[in-house]
């Protein structure tokens, strides 16, 4: 059973436009959420995170929104750049004290020049 | 800082052979994680260690998989015997858990192909 789901395997946007990547989770005990970015032939790298006590966290062009009632979070990239083309993984922490993360399947973002 | 080091980067083997993947975590990190990436399931956590002790191995698919961490700077993931369905990219990650910080640092991965 997939506790963290990214239902869109891929997304294509034009350079300069907004990219919105979505993630849903089922476990109400999740209280910390992260986004990782992965380029081909490299390991995932941390991008941005949000605690469940917040509904928004912003870092430059990247903003993560959390809707706890809907068990949904999204990553907004504005404006999108060709260098943002990568696989984006959503992850959730299943317990405050373990450091363990549950990852989604990933969404491949392509930003066209 | 060298980051998380994994070896080999690529491995091609035949079904039935033993495969050993290696990982050196970032110095000072007390958590080490092994993941497998597939198209269908994304990043699956196989097992993780805290201070060299296995904490949760519920993600290990079968008895054919085993992992060890003999010291703070080295871990192995072994598959014996290997099967074609084990073909995937295997990642090692490490973290230093301070309070609620769960950021993990990933290695470049080992791409395994079992023929």
Describe it for me?
The complex is a heterodimer of chains A (113) and B (115). Chain A has strands at residues 4-5, 10-14, 19-25, 32-38, 45-51, 56-59, 62-67, 72-77, 86-93, 101-103, 107-112. Chain A has 113 residues and is mostly beta strands. In chain A, a hairpin with a 4-residue loop joins strand 7 and strand 8 (72-77). Chain A starts with a strand and ends with a strand. The model of chain A has no long low-confidence stretch (mean pLDDT 93). Chain B has strands at 5-7, 10-13, 19-24, 31-38, 42-50, 53-56, 65-71, 74-79, 88-95, 105-106, 110-114. Chain B contains no helices and 11 strands. Chain B is mainly β and 115 residues long. In chain B, strands 2, 4, 5, 6, 9, 10 and 11 form a 7-stranded mixed beta sheet that branches. Chain B has a 4-stranded antiparallel beta sheet with strand order 1-3-8-7, with no helix packed on it. Helices cover 0% and strands 54% of the residues of chain B. Chain A binds chain B through residues 2, 6, 32, 34, 36, 41-46, 49, 51, 89, 91, 93, 96, 98-106, and chain B through 4, 31, 33, 35, 39-45, 48, 50, 55-56, 91, 93, 95, 97, 100-109.
Q: Which features characterize this protein?
A:
heterodimer, A: 113 residues, mainly beta, six-stranded mixed beta sheet, five-stranded antiparallel beta sheet, 11 strands, 54% strand, globular, B: 115 residues, seven-stranded mixed beta sheet
Which helices and strands, and how do they pair?
The complex is a heterodimer of chains A (113) and B (115).
Chain A: E1 4-5, E2 10-14, E3 19-25, E4 32-38, E5 45-51, E6 56-59, E7 62-67, E8 72-77, E9 86-93, E10 101-103, E11 107-112
Chain B: E1 5-7, E2 10-13, E3 19-24, E4 31-38, E5 42-50, E6 53-56, E7 65-71, E8 74-79, E9 88-95, E10 105-106, E11 110-114
Parallel strand pairs in B: 2-11
Antiparallel strand pairs in B: 1-3, 3-8, 4-5, 4-9, 5-6, 7-8, 9-10, 9-11
